[in-house]
Design a protein that fits this description.
Layout: H1 3-24, H2 54-58, H3 73-87, H4 100-124, H5 129-149, H6 154-183, H7 190-228, H8 241-254, H9 256-266
């Protein structure tokens, strides 16, 4: 079986688990116990109904026991997770000199952290601190492993990732405090700062700076369109986490140098 097919299948299965995480974590429920069950009637989901995407299709989008309509979001998240895992195969990752295998393993772990954070922020305007903290630790650990495999530049890579996590956290917390003082209400959540720190741990100082630049541009465009269309009020809360997560993943895919060169070419 080819690597691409394995990544798609594994990504879909992880996507199924992430659906559980996104539903249960905000409700402070265990993501492990009990097993998958219908939120409406509580009946356990049979193993053959729990197959990613295919199970939902076989059930025609309804619970086998009570007929509750299962949101189409569930199979869509599984498909999205599969696609993101597949894109990780060709990602730039830590460094051009880092092995493709290490970049792949790190990439699928990173995107499996970013996806639930994105969905929870969209649903609840909340970025769970335990998940962000785990992402920072995982990123620094993966960076250390990547640095140890390099013949030269390993210390510089690790230092960049330590500085990236620290600087991202401090800068965004500072901006959040200044914005709250100037506007009288929070403009950035502290969860955004912790997600940015996660990005710094995985991307390094230059990488997280470019990721944040992409997030700001994307957030400004989408936010402006939402306000023009009337979907977003002048002081209505706006989830910024999805834009940070997207920026992090885009930089992971191509590397900071690629983005910087194209940014210069765009304004050249």
């Amino acid at each position: 079986m080819s690597t691409s097919i394995l990544l798609l299948l594994a990504g879909a299965c992880i996507g199924s688990f992430l659906n559980v995480v996104v539903w249960r974590l905000p409700r402070q429920e265990s993501v492990v116990w009990p097993g998958s069950h219908c939120p409406n009637c509580g009946h356990g989901v049979r193993w053959h109904d729990n197959i990613p995407v295919l199970g939902w299709i076989a059930l025609t989008g309804r619970c086998r026991d009570c007929g509750w309509s299962i949101p189409i979001r569930y199979p869509l998240v599984e498909l999205l997770s599969a696609g993101l895992w597949w894109t990780a195969a060709g990602a730039h990752g830590f460094n051009p000199a880092t092995s493709a295998g290490l970049n792949l393993i790190a990439g699928v772990l990173l995107v499996s952290l970013l996806l639930p954070l994105t969905l929870i922020d969209l649903d609840h305007l909340w970025l769970p601190e335990p998940l962000c903290r785990a992402g920072v630790i995982a990123g620094l650990t993966a960076s250390l492993i990547a640095a140890s495999t390099l013949m030269t530049g390993g210390a510089a890579l690790m230092l960049s990732h330590l500085l990236g996590a620290s600087a991202a956290l401090l800068v965004l917390e500072g901006l959040s405090a200044l914005a709250e003082k100037a506007l009288g209400q929070p403009a950035l959540g502290l969860g955004d700062a912790k997600l940015a720190a996660l990005g710094g741990a995985w991307l390094g100082l230059q990488g997280v700076a470019i990721a944040m630049l992409l997030a700001i541009v994307g957030g400004a465009v989408i936010g402006s369109l939402a306000r023009i269309s009337g979907r977003l009020g002048p002081r209505e809360p706006f989830p910024f986490g999805p834009f940070i997560a997207t920026g992090i993943w885009l930089v992971w895919l191509q590397g900071p140098n690629w983005w910087w060169q194209h940014w210069l070419a765009l304004f050249g």
